[in-house]
Design a protein that fits this description.
The chain has one domain: Trna Endonuclease, Chain: A, domain 1 (3-Layer(aba) Sandwich), CATH 3.40.1350. Helices cover 46% and strands 24% of the residues. It has 3 helices and 7 strands. The strands form 2 sheets. It has a 5-stranded mixed beta sheet with strand order 1-4-5-6-7, with helices on both faces. A two-stranded antiparallel ribbon has the order 2-3. A hairpin with a 3-residue loop joins β4 and β5. α2 runs parallel beside α3.
Length: 176
C-alpha cells in the first residue's frame, strides 16, 4: 500500500469516527452527566462535616450548591464554573467534581479559582477567603499529588459514602 493510499484510509477512518462520535454525543453526554451527578451525591453526604472537622465551616452553612455555579465577565475575558460550592458566609469552598480525576482536571480547577478571585476582586464586593478542593469517583495518584502540591484538598470515596434506602414495610429481598 502506498503512502497516499494509507493516508486516504486514515482520513476515511477518522471521518467515520467523527460521524460516530457526533451520532452518539447525546448518549455519552447524558451518561456522563448521570455519573457525575452520582459522584456529587456521594460527596455531598458528608462534605460539610469533613470541612467542619478541618475548622473551615461553622455550623451555619448558607448553601451547598451541588448543581454547580457559573460566572462570566466579558470585560475580563473569563468564564468558568464550579461543580460544587459550600458557603457559610465567611468562607467559600469550591470543589471540582469528576468521575475520574486527572491532572488536567486539577489544572482546570486552579485556573477557575484564579479567575474567580480576579472576578470578585474586580467587583470589589467580597473579601471572603476561598479555598479549593477536587474530588472524583476515581482519583489518579498523580492528580491527587499535584492537587495537594497546589494547595487543594483531595476528596475520595470512603467506606461510609453510601447507604441502603430504607425498604418499605413488608419488603422481602428476592433470592436467586
Amino acid at each position: 500500500m502506498s503512502e497516499q493510499q494509507s493516508s486516504e484510509e486514515q482520513k476515511k477512518r477518522e471521518k467515520k469516527l467523527r460521524a460516530w462520535k457526533k451520532q452518539n454525543r447525546k448518549f455519552y453526554a447524558e451518561f456522563g452527566d448521570k455519573h457525575g451527578d452520582f459522584v456529587k451525591r456521594l460527596i455531598k453526604r458528608g462534605i460539610v462535616r469533613l470541612f467542619q472537622e478541618l475548622g473551615y465551616v461553622d455550623g451555619n452553612v448558607i448553601s451547598i450548591c451541588r448543581g454547580g455555579m457559573t460566572f462570566r465577565d466579558n470585560k475580563l475575558g473569563i468564564r468558568n464554573s464550579f461543580g460544587m460550592v459550600i458557603d457559610d458566609g465567611k468562607i467559600a469552598i469550591f470543589i471540582y467534581v469528576a468521575i475520574e480525576l486527572e491532572t488536567w482536571c486539577v489544572r482546570s480547577h486552579i485556573e477557575a479559582l484564579e479567575n474567580y478571585r480576579r472576578y470578585i476582586d474586580a467587583k470589589g464586593s467580597d473579601k471572603r477567603c476561598f479555598i479549593g478542593a477536587v474530588a472524583g469517583g476515581v482519583v489518579k495518584d498523580e492528580a491527587a499529588e499535584f492537587a495537594q502540591q497546589n494547595g487543594l484538598y483531595v476528596i475520595v470515596q470512603s467506606g461510609e459514602a453510601v447507604d441502603i434506602v430504607t425498604p418499605p414495610e413488608g419488603f422481602v429481598a428476592k433470592e436467586w
